[in-house]
Amino acid sequence: MRKGVLRPGHIQLRVLDLEASIKHYVELLGLHETDRDEQGRVYLKAWSEVDKFSLVLREADEPGMDFMAFKVVDESTLASLTADIEAFGLEVTHKEAGDLKDCGRRVQFTAPSGHVFELYAEKAYTGKWGVEETNPEAWPRALRGMKAVRFDHCLLYGDELAKTYDLFVDVLGFYLAEQVLDPDGNRIAQFLTLSMKAHDIAFIQHEEKAKFHHASFYLETWEDILRAADLISMTNTSLDIGPTRHGITHGKTIYFFDPSGNRNEVFAGGDYMYPDHNPITWKAEDLGKAIFYHDRVLNERFLTVLT
């Protein structure tokens, strides 16, 4: 049942070297810097995104994710969802409008998995970068690097997956697109979506709370993924794995690290879902093929390197 959550809105990442990180996200991924604030945070967006920012970078002593945010339909929806989250048993923190530059008020809460999420209704609408809204061209000519189209999703590691599922499905209105079950039928991975996308957020069972696996940025084609692989080598960027195809979602993918060790993905294709589709199920004993469809072998670094 839809509850008025629209889509992923932004993510705030901690980075060790701000200027090196800006160079990575702008010159390699192809994001665009849109602003900076008095706290020293830097705001970026991909070219097709209509709001002012989708990625916020904050310099810190350790890498990782501060929070991930979802945009909701309007202020009344934000108020009703806030009440629903509190009724679920979670404490809500209110962030005033402007705490993030040109973003309206936000409500923050910590999921049972330990990750911090927030909801908001308003953010400055700046339109697509380099493309007019009347008679738009296919894409801006001045794109750089991997030419990321949009911030797409996050994969997070933590415990209490069942209760986290209840929060996202029963309270926030996501639905289950894909899952991995262990031999006893327990869900050890859940891929949740708000729309026709393969997933907007995913969780993997892990003994530690609040671990960040990756932020994913969407590219259009498999050829774009191969070009991203070339750019990773050209810039001596730390490669994790790929290019390859997932079994889960069937998306084409490559993983690599920003200068602080936060994992990035660029992702193309993937299955489509509707709310009336049955969830796709993978068996834990076939996890190698589920994650890396071609070589069908689990990569230890992919499973264990987290921030």
TrEMBL record:
One of its GO terms (molecular function) is ferrous iron binding. Gene3D superfamilies: 2,3-Dihydroxybiphenyl 1,2-Dioxygenase, domain 1. Its cofactor is Fe(2+). Keywords: Aromatic hydrocarbons catabolism, Dioxygenase, Iron, Metal-binding, Oxidoreductase, Repeat. The keyword Ribosomal protein does not apply. The keyword Metal-binding applies. InterPro entries: Catechol_2-3_dOase (IPR017624), Fosfomycin_Res_Enzymes (IPR051332), Glyas_Bleomycin-R_OHBP_Dase (IPR029068), Glyas_Fos-R_dOase_dom (IPR004360), VOC_core (IPR037523), Xdiol_ring_cleave_dOase_1/2 (IPR000486), XylE-like_N (IPR054560). It catalyses: catechol + O2 = (2Z,4E)-2-hydroxy-6-oxohexa-2,4-dienoate + H(+). It holds the Pfam family Glyoxalase. Residues 7-122, 150-269 form the VOC domain. Its EC number is 1.13.11.2. Belongs to the extradiol ring-cleavage dioxygenase family. NCBIfam families: catechol_2_3. Homotetramer. This is Metapyrocatechase. It comes from Alteromonas alba. The lineage of its organism: Bacteria, Pseudomonadati, Pseudomonadota, Gammaproteobacteria, Alteromonadales.
